[in-house]
Specification:
By secondary structure, this protein is of the alpha/beta class. It contains 14 helices and 14 strands. The strands form three sheets. A seven-stranded mixed sheet has the order 4-10-9-8-7-5-6, sandwiched between helices. A four-stranded mixed sheet has the order 1-2-3-13. The chain has a three-stranded antiparallel sheet with strand order 11-12-14, with helices on one face. Helix 13 packs across helix 14.
Amino acid sequence: MPVALVRGEGCYVWDSNGKRYLDFYGGHCVTPLGHCPPRVVDAIKRQSERLLFYSNVVYNDVRARSARLLAEMAPLKRIFFCNSGTEAIETALKIARKSTGRNEVVSMTGAFHGRTLGSLATTWNPAYRAPFTKVLANSHFLPLGDLAAAESFLAHNSDTAAVLIEPIQSIAGMVGASDDYFQGLRKLCNSTGTLLIFDEVQTGVGRTGTFSISEQFGIVPDMITLAKSLGSGVPVGATLLSEALSNEVKYGDQGSTFGGGMIAMSAVEATLQSIREDNLMNNAPKIFDAITDAVQPFALEMRGHGCLIGVRIKPKVSNILPALRERGVLAGGSADPNVMRLMPPLIASEEQITEFAEAFRDVIENVHA
Protein backbone atom coordinates (compact mmCIF):
# COMPACT_ATOMS: atom_id res chain seq x y z
CA MET A 1 0.00 0.00 0.00
CA PRO A 2 1.34 3.48 -0.81
CA VAL A 3 0.83 4.59 2.80
CA ALA A 4 3.40 5.39 5.51
CA LEU A 5 1.69 4.64 8.81
CA VAL A 6 3.14 6.12 11.99
CA ARG A 7 0.48 5.80 14.69
CA GLY A 8 -2.47 3.63 15.67
CA GLU A 9 -5.23 3.61 18.25
CA GLY A 10 -8.19 1.25 18.39
CA CYS A 11 -9.66 0.72 14.93
CA TYR A 12 -7.72 3.61 13.40
CA VAL A 13 -4.24 4.33 12.06
CA TRP A 14 -2.67 7.60 10.93
CA ASP A 15 -0.16 8.20 8.15
CA SER A 16 2.84 10.52 8.14
CA ASN A 17 0.67 13.33 6.77
CA GLY A 18 -1.82 13.03 9.61
CA LYS A 19 -4.56 11.35 7.59
CA ARG A 20 -6.71 8.90 9.55
CA TYR A 21 -7.76 5.49 8.23
CA LEU A 22 -10.33 3.02 9.51
CA ASP A 23 -8.32 -0.20 9.57
CA PHE A 24 -10.33 -3.27 8.61
CA TYR A 25 -7.19 -5.04 7.37
CA GLY A 26 -5.13 -5.15 10.56
CA GLY A 27 -1.72 -5.57 8.98
CA HIS A 28 -2.55 -9.08 7.69
CA CYS A 29 -5.11 -9.99 10.36
CA VAL A 30 -2.93 -9.20 13.38
CA THR A 31 -4.89 -6.82 15.67
CA PRO A 32 -7.79 -8.52 17.48
CA LEU A 33 -7.96 -5.71 20.06
CA GLY A 34 -7.25 -2.90 17.62
CA HIS A 35 -4.04 -0.90 17.60
CA CYS A 36 -2.06 -0.22 20.78
CA PRO A 37 -4.62 -1.73 23.19
CA PRO A 38 -3.88 -0.11 26.56
CA ARG A 39 -3.78 -3.35 28.52
CA VAL A 40 -1.20 -4.86 26.16
CA VAL A 41 0.87 -1.67 26.02
CA ASP A 42 0.92 -1.44 29.82
CA ALA A 43 1.93 -5.10 30.15
CA ILE A 44 4.82 -4.63 27.72
CA LYS A 45 5.97 -1.51 29.57
CA ARG A 46 5.93 -3.25 32.93
CA GLN A 47 7.75 -6.32 31.63
CA SER A 48 10.39 -4.25 29.83
CA GLU A 49 11.35 -2.71 33.16
CA ARG A 50 11.69 -6.14 34.84
CA LEU A 51 13.33 -8.43 32.29
CA LEU A 52 13.53 -7.91 28.54
CA PHE A 53 14.64 -11.41 27.67
CA TYR A 54 15.99 -14.74 28.69
CA SER A 55 15.65 -17.91 26.64
CA ASN A 56 13.51 -20.87 27.62
CA VAL A 57 16.56 -22.54 29.12
CA VAL A 58 15.15 -21.05 32.35
CA TYR A 59 11.68 -20.94 33.88
CA ASN A 60 9.88 -17.60 33.93
CA ASP A 61 6.76 -16.24 35.59
CA VAL A 62 5.14 -14.41 32.65
CA ARG A 63 5.79 -17.34 30.32
CA ALA A 64 4.17 -19.72 32.80
CA ARG A 65 1.11 -17.49 33.19
CA SER A 66 0.74 -17.07 29.42
CA ALA A 67 1.00 -20.80 28.82
CA ARG A 68 -1.55 -21.57 31.54
CA LEU A 69 -4.00 -19.00 30.17
CA LEU A 70 -3.59 -20.27 26.61
CA ALA A 71 -4.11 -23.86 27.78
CA GLU A 72 -7.29 -22.85 29.60
CA MET A 73 -8.74 -21.18 26.50
CA ALA A 74 -7.59 -23.53 23.72
CA PRO A 75 -8.79 -27.10 23.02
CA LEU A 76 -5.20 -28.42 23.10
CA LYS A 77 -3.08 -28.02 26.23
CA ARG A 78 0.56 -28.71 25.29
CA ILE A 79 2.32 -25.64 23.90
CA PHE A 80 5.55 -24.77 22.15
CA PHE A 81 6.18 -21.04 21.75
CA CYS A 82 8.04 -19.65 18.75
CA ASN A 83 8.16 -16.35 16.87
CA SER A 84 5.88 -16.54 13.84
CA GLY A 85 3.26 -18.52 11.99
CA THR A 86 5.68 -20.17 9.62
CA GLU A 87 7.81 -21.35 12.57
CA ALA A 88 4.71 -22.80 14.20
CA ILE A 89 4.01 -24.73 10.99
CA GLU A 90 7.63 -25.91 10.77
CA THR A 91 7.38 -27.22 14.33
CA ALA A 92 4.14 -29.07 13.57
CA LEU A 93 5.59 -30.66 10.43
CA LYS A 94 8.69 -31.85 12.27
CA ILE A 95 6.63 -33.36 15.07
CA ALA A 96 4.28 -35.03 12.60
CA ARG A 97 7.07 -36.68 10.65
CA LYS A 98 9.03 -37.81 13.70
CA SER A 99 6.07 -39.13 15.68
CA THR A 100 4.52 -41.10 12.79
CA GLY A 101 7.73 -42.21 11.09
CA ARG A 102 6.19 -41.09 7.81
CA ASN A 103 7.58 -38.50 5.42
CA GLU A 104 4.89 -36.90 3.28
CA VAL A 105 2.32 -34.22 4.05
CA VAL A 106 -0.99 -33.43 2.40
CA SER A 107 -2.08 -29.82 2.03
CA MET A 108 -4.86 -28.17 0.05
CA THR A 109 -5.02 -26.34 -3.25
CA GLY A 110 -5.15 -22.64 -2.49
CA ALA A 111 -3.36 -23.06 0.85
CA PHE A 112 -0.85 -20.64 2.33
CA HIS A 113 1.24 -21.91 5.24
CA GLY A 114 4.37 -19.76 5.11
CA ARG A 115 7.58 -19.15 3.19
CA THR A 116 10.32 -20.94 5.09
CA LEU A 117 11.36 -24.14 3.34
CA GLY A 118 9.27 -26.63 5.30
CA SER A 119 6.07 -24.62 5.26
CA LEU A 120 6.71 -23.41 1.72
CA ALA A 121 6.50 -27.01 0.52
CA THR A 122 2.89 -27.07 1.72
CA THR A 123 1.96 -23.66 0.28
CA TRP A 124 -0.06 -23.93 -2.90
CA ASN A 125 1.02 -20.93 -4.99
CA PRO A 126 3.42 -22.35 -7.62
CA ALA A 127 5.10 -18.94 -8.01
CA TYR A 128 6.31 -19.11 -4.40
CA ARG A 129 7.56 -22.69 -4.69
CA ALA A 130 9.04 -22.69 -8.22
CA PRO A 131 12.53 -21.34 -7.41
CA PHE A 132 13.02 -23.93 -4.65
CA THR A 133 11.44 -27.12 -5.97
CA LYS A 134 14.76 -29.02 -5.90
CA VAL A 135 15.07 -28.64 -2.14
CA LEU A 136 11.44 -28.75 -1.00
CA ALA A 137 10.01 -31.80 0.77
CA ASN A 138 7.42 -33.90 -1.02
CA SER A 139 3.92 -32.56 -0.54
CA HIS A 140 0.60 -33.31 -2.17
CA PHE A 141 -2.32 -30.96 -2.71
CA LEU A 142 -5.97 -31.96 -2.55
CA PRO A 143 -9.11 -29.87 -3.21
CA LEU A 144 -10.48 -28.32 -0.03
CA GLY A 145 -13.91 -29.71 0.82
CA ASP A 146 -13.58 -32.88 -1.27
CA LEU A 147 -13.68 -35.72 1.25
CA ALA A 148 -13.75 -38.41 -1.45
CA ALA A 149 -10.43 -37.12 -2.82
CA ALA A 150 -8.90 -37.28 0.65
CA GLU A 151 -10.22 -40.82 1.19
CA SER A 152 -8.80 -41.98 -2.12
CA PHE A 153 -5.41 -40.38 -1.52
CA LEU A 154 -4.90 -41.63 2.02
CA ALA A 155 -6.05 -45.13 1.05
CA HIS A 156 -3.21 -45.36 -1.48
CA ASN A 157 -0.48 -43.35 0.29
CA SER A 158 0.50 -44.97 3.56
CA ASP A 159 3.53 -42.68 3.98
CA THR A 160 1.34 -39.64 4.76
CA ALA A 161 2.29 -38.20 8.13
CA ALA A 162 -0.30 -35.43 8.31
CA VAL A 163 -3.07 -33.50 6.65
CA LEU A 164 -2.35 -29.80 7.04
CA ILE A 165 -5.32 -27.52 6.48
CA GLU A 166 -6.43 -23.92 6.84
CA PRO A 167 -10.06 -24.11 7.96
CA ILE A 168 -10.62 -20.86 6.08
CA GLN A 169 -8.20 -20.13 3.25
CA SER A 170 -7.87 -16.39 3.73
CA ILE A 171 -5.47 -15.45 0.94
CA ALA A 172 -7.30 -17.73 -1.50
CA GLY A 173 -10.42 -15.60 -1.03
CA MET A 174 -11.86 -16.73 2.32
CA VAL A 175 -12.58 -20.22 0.99
CA GLY A 176 -14.05 -22.69 3.48
CA ALA A 177 -15.74 -26.09 3.68
CA SER A 178 -18.69 -27.70 5.42
CA ASP A 179 -18.81 -29.03 8.97
CA ASP A 180 -19.44 -32.50 7.52
CA TYR A 181 -16.20 -32.29 5.56
CA PHE A 182 -14.10 -31.49 8.63
CA GLN A 183 -15.84 -34.15 10.71
CA GLY A 184 -15.27 -36.70 7.96
CA LEU A 185 -11.64 -35.67 7.63
CA ARG A 186 -11.13 -36.17 11.37
CA LYS A 187 -12.55 -39.71 11.15
CA LEU A 188 -10.46 -40.44 8.06
CA CYS A 189 -7.25 -39.34 9.75
CA ASN A 190 -8.10 -41.45 12.80
CA SER A 191 -8.65 -44.54 10.67
CA THR A 192 -5.41 -44.13 8.69
CA GLY A 193 -3.10 -43.07 11.53
CA THR A 194 -2.64 -39.69 9.90
CA LEU A 195 -2.31 -36.56 12.03
CA LEU A 196 -4.68 -33.65 11.47
CA ILE A 197 -3.09 -30.20 11.75
CA PHE A 198 -5.20 -27.05 11.77
CA ASP A 199 -3.33 -23.95 10.60
CA GLU A 200 -5.19 -21.36 12.66
CA VAL A 201 -2.71 -18.55 12.23
CA GLN A 202 -5.64 -16.46 10.99
CA THR A 203 -8.75 -18.25 12.30
CA GLY A 204 -7.45 -18.72 15.84
CA VAL A 205 -7.49 -16.69 19.07
CA GLY A 206 -11.23 -16.08 18.92
CA ARG A 207 -11.42 -14.31 15.60
CA THR A 208 -14.20 -16.56 14.29
CA GLY A 209 -16.25 -16.62 17.50
CA THR A 210 -14.58 -19.54 19.30
CA PHE A 211 -10.95 -19.73 20.35
CA SER A 212 -10.35 -22.43 17.73
CA ILE A 213 -12.69 -22.75 14.78
CA SER A 214 -12.45 -26.53 15.30
CA GLU A 215 -14.86 -26.08 18.21
CA GLN A 216 -17.54 -25.01 15.72
CA PHE A 217 -17.01 -28.23 13.76
CA GLY A 218 -17.23 -30.43 16.86
CA ILE A 219 -13.75 -31.94 16.39
CA VAL A 220 -10.29 -31.63 17.94
CA PRO A 221 -7.19 -31.62 15.68
CA ASP A 222 -3.94 -33.26 16.75
CA MET A 223 -2.13 -29.95 16.42
CA ILE A 224 -3.10 -26.29 16.05
CA THR A 225 -0.77 -23.52 14.96
CA LEU A 226 -1.27 -19.93 16.11
CA ALA A 227 0.38 -16.56 15.49
CA LYS A 228 -0.87 -13.14 14.23
CA SER A 229 -3.64 -12.26 16.75
CA LEU A 230 -1.89 -14.08 19.60
CA GLY A 231 0.33 -11.13 20.54
CA SER A 232 -1.70 -8.13 19.30
CA GLY A 233 1.13 -7.20 16.96
CA VAL A 234 4.14 -8.40 18.93
CA PRO A 235 5.77 -11.25 16.95
CA VAL A 236 4.88 -14.60 18.50
CA GLY A 237 3.73 -18.02 17.40
CA ALA A 238 2.66 -21.23 19.09
CA THR A 239 2.19 -24.89 18.19
CA LEU A 240 -0.44 -26.65 20.30
CA LEU A 241 -0.40 -30.44 20.65
CA SER A 242 -2.72 -33.10 22.00
CA GLU A 243 -1.69 -34.82 25.21
CA ALA A 244 -1.06 -38.11 23.40
CA LEU A 245 1.08 -36.51 20.74
CA SER A 246 3.07 -34.46 23.24
CA ASN A 247 4.17 -37.71 24.86
CA GLU A 248 6.03 -38.51 21.63
CA VAL A 249 8.11 -35.32 21.85
CA LYS A 250 11.47 -35.84 23.52
CA TYR A 251 13.84 -33.41 25.16
CA GLY A 252 15.85 -31.64 22.47
CA ASP A 253 13.45 -32.39 19.61
CA GLN A 254 12.76 -28.70 19.13
CA GLY A 255 14.14 -25.39 20.33
CA SER A 256 13.99 -21.64 19.85
CA THR A 257 16.17 -18.92 21.31
CA PHE A 258 13.55 -16.20 21.22
CA GLY A 259 10.44 -18.38 21.45
CA GLY A 260 8.63 -17.64 24.70
CA GLY A 261 10.55 -14.42 25.26
CA MET A 262 9.29 -12.18 28.05
CA ILE A 263 8.06 -9.23 26.00
CA ALA A 264 6.12 -11.52 23.66
CA MET A 265 4.69 -13.44 26.59
CA SER A 266 3.54 -10.26 28.32
CA ALA A 267 1.68 -9.33 25.12
CA VAL A 268 0.14 -12.81 24.87
CA GLU A 269 -1.01 -12.76 28.48
CA ALA A 270 -2.61 -9.32 28.18
CA THR A 271 -4.23 -10.17 24.83
CA LEU A 272 -5.79 -13.38 26.12
CA GLN A 273 -6.93 -11.73 29.34
CA SER A 274 -8.69 -9.00 27.37
CA ILE A 275 -10.38 -11.44 25.00
CA ARG A 276 -11.62 -13.67 27.83
CA GLU A 277 -12.54 -11.13 30.49
CA ASP A 278 -14.28 -8.77 28.05
CA ASN A 279 -16.06 -11.65 26.26
CA LEU A 280 -14.78 -10.33 22.93
CA MET A 281 -15.20 -13.63 21.07
CA ASN A 282 -18.95 -13.08 21.35
CA ASN A 283 -18.55 -9.97 19.20
CA ALA A 284 -17.20 -11.87 16.18
CA PRO A 285 -20.48 -13.27 14.77
CA LYS A 286 -22.25 -9.98 15.51
CA ILE A 287 -19.64 -8.06 13.52
CA PHE A 288 -19.95 -10.51 10.63
CA ASP A 289 -23.73 -10.09 10.57
CA ALA A 290 -23.51 -6.30 10.83
CA ILE A 291 -21.04 -6.06 7.95
CA THR A 292 -23.18 -8.45 5.90
CA ASP A 293 -26.18 -6.19 6.38
CA ALA A 294 -24.12 -3.08 5.69
CA VAL A 295 -22.70 -4.15 2.31
CA GLN A 296 -26.03 -5.22 0.82
CA PRO A 297 -27.06 -5.10 -1.99
CA PHE A 298 -23.56 -4.83 -3.47
CA ALA A 299 -22.15 -8.10 -2.11
CA LEU A 300 -22.67 -11.10 -4.36
CA GLU A 301 -21.56 -13.48 -1.61
CA MET A 302 -20.31 -13.32 1.97
CA ARG A 303 -17.60 -15.74 3.04
CA GLY A 304 -15.77 -16.62 6.25
CA HIS A 305 -16.73 -16.49 9.91
CA GLY A 306 -16.68 -13.78 12.54
CA CYS A 307 -13.97 -11.18 11.97
CA LEU A 308 -12.44 -13.06 9.05
CA ILE A 309 -14.63 -11.92 6.18
CA GLY A 310 -14.62 -12.23 2.40
CA VAL A 311 -16.92 -10.02 0.34
CA ARG A 312 -17.37 -11.13 -3.26
CA ILE A 313 -18.25 -8.20 -5.52
CA LYS A 314 -18.74 -7.67 -9.21
CA PRO A 315 -15.92 -5.18 -9.86
CA LYS A 316 -12.26 -6.10 -9.53
CA VAL A 317 -11.10 -5.57 -5.98
CA SER A 318 -7.87 -4.03 -7.27
CA ASN A 319 -9.96 -1.14 -8.60
CA ILE A 320 -11.84 -0.71 -5.33
CA LEU A 321 -9.08 -0.76 -2.70
CA PRO A 322 -7.30 2.46 -3.81
CA ALA A 323 -10.62 4.33 -3.82
CA LEU A 324 -11.37 3.05 -0.32
CA ARG A 325 -7.95 4.25 0.85
CA GLU A 326 -8.72 7.69 -0.58
CA ARG A 327 -11.85 7.68 1.59
CA GLY A 328 -9.87 6.63 4.65
CA VAL A 329 -10.55 2.88 4.80
CA LEU A 330 -8.01 0.03 4.65
CA ALA A 331 -9.10 -3.37 3.34
CA GLY A 332 -7.36 -6.23 1.52
CA GLY A 333 -7.45 -8.20 -1.69
CA SER A 334 -7.01 -11.93 -2.27
CA ALA A 335 -6.05 -14.44 -4.92
CA ASP A 336 -9.64 -14.20 -6.12
CA PRO A 337 -9.80 -10.89 -7.99
CA ASN A 338 -13.41 -10.37 -6.95
CA VAL A 339 -13.09 -11.11 -3.23
CA MET A 340 -12.22 -8.32 -0.80
CA ARG A 341 -10.88 -9.38 2.58
CA LEU A 342 -11.92 -7.68 5.81
CA MET A 343 -10.25 -8.51 9.13
CA PRO A 344 -11.75 -6.01 11.57
CA PRO A 345 -10.81 -6.21 15.25
CA LEU A 346 -13.12 -7.77 17.79
CA ILE A 347 -13.78 -4.29 19.17
CA ALA A 348 -15.25 -2.82 15.95
CA SER A 349 -18.33 -0.76 16.81
CA GLU A 350 -21.60 -0.22 14.96
CA GLU A 351 -20.47 3.31 14.15
CA GLN A 352 -17.23 2.06 12.61
CA ILE A 353 -19.07 -0.56 10.58
CA THR A 354 -21.37 2.18 9.33
CA GLU A 355 -18.32 4.28 8.48
CA PHE A 356 -16.92 1.40 6.43
CA ALA A 357 -20.26 0.76 4.74
CA GLU A 358 -20.71 4.36 3.68
CA ALA A 359 -17.26 4.44 2.09
CA PHE A 360 -17.82 1.05 0.45
CA ARG A 361 -21.17 2.06 -1.06
CA ASP A 362 -19.77 5.36 -2.26
CA VAL A 363 -16.91 3.62 -4.03
CA ILE A 364 -19.14 0.98 -5.64
CA GLU A 365 -21.80 3.46 -6.73
CA ASN A 366 -19.53 6.25 -7.95
CA VAL A 367 -15.98 5.09 -8.62
CA HIS A 368 -16.90 1.76 -10.17
CA ALA A 369 -19.85 3.21 -12.11
